[in-house]
């Protein structure tokens, strides 16, 4: 499930011709009015955070995810319940003055971010534009949730696990995924025993290797063939 204030896109951004993506590569930034783009460039800053960082992102800024993956963690919990992948934006509700859902958002993998003060975004885009955009995002989130509900009801756990591993793999630009099977079980809403069986199946097929809280994608094409492909671009 996507974060409440994340811009959910059908697939992560894949920068072309740059080893280090910047804000100009971001699909949401490119969709903004040119005067707003100039204001964001003037007010914003790019930064890198390690996947081991434990301090959650603050609610005074809007965060464009340039590469890597953020995780959504319920208050006082170490279990990630949703990823926010590259090409998304976290914190639109902050720009409207809302404190959000109360969940912590912090790196799940190493991330490169573009951070802009929420007040600057509100001034650059205006309340009406933001309200319309967030309403559009709400419709997009509802569609996403409907697709996920249908997927949960009709596909095997191994297919759904393959799908989520691919999402994280692409969102993290191929980096190893520091996720325990308990976290994966929470993200998919299934028992850990079901995840254990599904993970064993994917590993036996040579698509993934699991070891000590880390998942390494060995064959993305094979993993794609084993996934349900719901929501694939």
UniProtKB/TrEMBL annotation:
Residues 171-219 form the HTH crp-type domain. Keywords: DNA-binding, Transcription, Transcription regulation. This is Crp/Fnr family transcriptional regulator. Transmembrane segments: none annotated. One of its GO terms (biological process) is regulation of DNA-templated transcription. The keyword Glycoprotein does not apply. InterPro entries: cNMP-bd_dom_sf (IPR018490), HTH_CRP (IPR012318), RmlC-like_jellyroll (IPR014710), WH_DNA-bd_sf (IPR036390). Residues 1-25 are annotated as: Disordered. Pfam families: HTH_Crp_2. The keyword Translocase does not apply.
């Amino acid at each position: 499930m996507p974060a409440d204030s994340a811009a959910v896109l059908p697939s992560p951004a894949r920068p072309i011709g740059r080893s280090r993506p910047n804000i100009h590569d971001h699909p949401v930034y490119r969709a903004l009015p040119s005067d707003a783009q100039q204001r964001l460039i003037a007010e914003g800053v790019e930064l890198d955070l390690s996947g081991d960082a434990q301090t959650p992102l603050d609610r005074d800024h809007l965060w464009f995810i340039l590469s890597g993956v953020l995780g959504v963690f319920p208050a006082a919990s170490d279990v990630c319940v949703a990823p926010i992948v590259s090409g998304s934006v976290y914190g639109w509700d902050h720009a409207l003055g809302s404190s959000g859902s109360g969940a912590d958002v912090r790196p799940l993998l190493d991330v490169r971010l573009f951070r802009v003060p929420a007040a600057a975004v509100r001034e650059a885009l205006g309340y009406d534009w933001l309200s319309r955009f967030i309403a559009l995002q709400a419709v997009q989130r509802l569609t996403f949730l409907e697709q996920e509900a249908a997927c949960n009801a009709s596909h095997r756990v191994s297919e759904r696990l393959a799908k989520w591993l691919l999402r994280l793999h692409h969102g993290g630009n191929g980096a190893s995924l520091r996720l325990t099977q308990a976290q994966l079980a929470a993200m998919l809403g299934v028992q850990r025993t079901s995840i254990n069986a599904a993970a064993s199946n994917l590993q036996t097929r040579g698509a993934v290797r699991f070891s000590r809280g880390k998942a390494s994608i060995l064959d993305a094409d094979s993993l794609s063939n084993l996934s349900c492909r719901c929501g694939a671009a």
